[in-house]
Specification:
The structure is a single chain. The chain has 87 residues and is mainly α. It has one domain. 63% of the residues lie in helices and 0% in strands. It is built from four helices and no strands. The longest helix has 21 residues.
């Protein structure tokens, strides 16, 4: 019974690890140059202490951080932020 309980507790963590490992890096998804452009924009607008602005992260994670940072900057946001506005 205890072994089954441990498995039930560990199963969600295993699913998260598997999905993180399966996520493609931004560099792999869009190429080095485009990934570096996302990273540079992310670094420019992210207020996070340890932002996800790394080409080895999935592009969605990076662009979500750009969108968040742009939103926080409001009228002071760089012009590239217009491309990240949700309509």
């Amino acid at each position: 019974m205890a072994a089954r309980l441990r498995l039930l507790i560990a199963a969600p963590a295993l699913v998260l690890l598997a999905s993180a490992a399966a996520a493609q890096s931004c560099r792999q998804a869009v190429g080095a140059a485009e990934a570096q452009r996302f990273v540079a924009q992310c670094i420019q607008v992210s207020p996070a202490t340890h932002p996800p602005c790394n080409a080895e992260n999935p592009c969605d994670l990076i662009t979500d951080e750009i969108r968040r940072g742009c939103g926080l900057l409001g009228a002071d946001a760089p012009s590239f932020c217009r491309a990240y506005q949700r309509h």
